[in-house]
Specification:
Structural class: alpha+beta
Number of helices: 10
Helix content: 55-70%
Largest sheet: 7 strands, mixed
CATH class of the largest domain: Mainly Alpha
Distance between the termini: 30 Å
Strand content: 5-15%
Amino acid sequence: MRGADIRSIQALADLRAGLMRFGADTEAALRAMDAQVRQTLEYLGERQRHWEAKVRAAEEEYRRAWAALQACQSREYTDPKTGRTYIPPCTQEQEWVRRASQALAEAQARLREVVEWRRLVERTAEEFQRQARRMAAWVREELPKASRLLESKVNTLYAYASLGPGGGSTFAQATFTTLPPADAAASTAALGALLAAVGIGVAGIATIRWLSQGVRKALGDVGEALAADLTQQEGNLREIPFDQPKHGFDRVFLTSNGRVVILESKVHKRGEFHPGQTQHGEQGSPEWVAATAEKMADPFSAQWSPANERIAALIRDMGMENVPVVAVVIETETGQAHIYHRQSNEMWTPLQEGISLAEVLSADTNPPTPPPGGLERETSPEREIAGGPEQLG
């Protein structure tokens, strides 16, 4: 019976790590939003007290103005000659009453507005806090369940893959089969089903959207991970961990005799290989290798790190023209992969059926240049770069 073709166990492990980061980020966001709601309510309460005081002051001012007007109008008199009664015009008092009445009306309107907003925010805050409590409870209770489930599946798949031929993944020659990168997008829907299964409600819609974005970003690296796995197995190579630059080598490997091998991964819906063109030449060319290694060794470059500098030193020891570069192109829909290789100023060459990548890489008889002061290295390249072979996994 043919074994399953397992190529994306790390994607599940990355998903589990993403879930746990999401849980921590969600709890932090809920706390921040709750604090903001409380701050808004406190502000509205302060404004309500402010305008209540303004209304009381305006009412007192209006009473004083009205009393002054009444007192003025009470000073009417009768003309003894004509017998007619006259009332003073009280112009200043009437203007005082008008201004006091207007100020009171404005203060009362502002108070009503603040009270209405406070009631609206309180009702909205109650609904938010109810949903936030549900979300927080889900994060605390259900996310760990999903994490444990993914951890169990990852462990099971690693155990299955370790069985070897018949139990783990196998490769064909010339055309290889990997997980179709397009299928990885379906994991978003599967994750949504998983979340629904553990009881997520309406409040979880935002969760699924966030995870979709996070998973899509993570799946951008699936093609590279599949290419690295294929290259490592077919070339009998050992991957070197390094601080991967934004623009540079995708992965770096060592052969059994300490030669550096560089990997470039591509994902294309028709499986076509189009090497990138850079200001330092085509990807894979000695000029491109030299320019990238130079940046990795430059302490003032964003691509520098101690590990990267040591890799650059190994490349310089070998000679840029002696560094083989491997490209793996994976078809988006089918998962079929094709391997290309080049060295020196040769053209990119597709790996032919019946010839393994390990044979191609071992066919080059140019050994690494020994360092000055000795014919052999005191330590292996792996130990120089990563602190010892045991740290390479």
